[in-house]
Amino acid sequence: MQKLIDEIEAMLKTINIPKKNKDNNRRKFPAFCRAMTLGYVKKRYINTVELSTPTLKYPELYKKLVHLGILCNFEFTSIHINHNIVTPKHKDSRNMGVSLIISFGDYTGCDLYVEGVKQDTYRKPVIFNGSKLEHWNSDDLVGNRYSLVYYNIKIPDAVKDITQETI
User: Fold this and answer.
1) pTM for this one?
2) Cα(127)–Cα(146) distance, rounded to whole angstroms?
3) Whole-angstrom Cα distance, residue 78 to residue 153?
4) Residue 100 in contact with residue 72, Cβ under 8 Å?
């Protein structure tokens, strides 16, 4: 698994992960933060579920991310990639059930806390119910931190027959 994480990190370093701005930053993260979602996403204004634009743009990255999720024995519909994001206290109200998070990079700090308990996510998967449990990061990030959040959204029956391996 560690070799795969190294490969994913190398790929992420070559990608321009979008910056958060006033239109795509509902949690009010600092402007230097970057994030994108691969896999299935709900299109807000047209109420459909489809593969995200970054999924189609970066199919090799998506395949590696899916492989990592499978190695972690975790079922998911979506993968959120964070780069240098320090999250405030929140719950993931739109997620269904448990989520898996794993982080990597050349960083210190930015520890994950779930209901006040520190979790070690550095190159290790941590599973918790982010829709029910309040969680956040400490605000002492130094360096470059990537985190992957594997989670599930509600998918209409018409889409359920399509799996992550289809691209």
Assistant:
1) 0.87
2) 17
3) 7
4) yes
Q: What is the reported pLDDT for 164? A: 44
Q: Do the strands 142-151 and 135-137 form a parallel or antiparallel pair, or are they unpaired? A: unpaired
The token duo for 167 is 């691209």
Q: Residue 10: what pLDDT?
A: 97
Using alpha carbons, list the distances in angstroms from residue 144 to 13, 110, 111, 159: 10, 10, 13, 36
95-128 exposure pattern, b = at least 16 Cβ within 10 A, e = fewer: beebbbbbbbbebeebbbebeeeebebbeebbbb
**Residue ranges of the chain with per-residue pLDDT less than 70:** 20-32, 44, 156-167
Q: What is the DSSP string of 42-80?
A: EETTTTEEEE-HHHHH-HHHHHHHHHHHHHTT---SEEE
Could you tell me which residues come within 8 angstroms of residue 123 by beta carbon, excluding any fewer than 6 positions away? 2, 5, 102, 103, 104
- Using CA atoms, how far apart are residues 75 and 66, in angstroms rounded to an integer? 10
Nearest to 155 by CA among 43, 62, 73, 10: 43
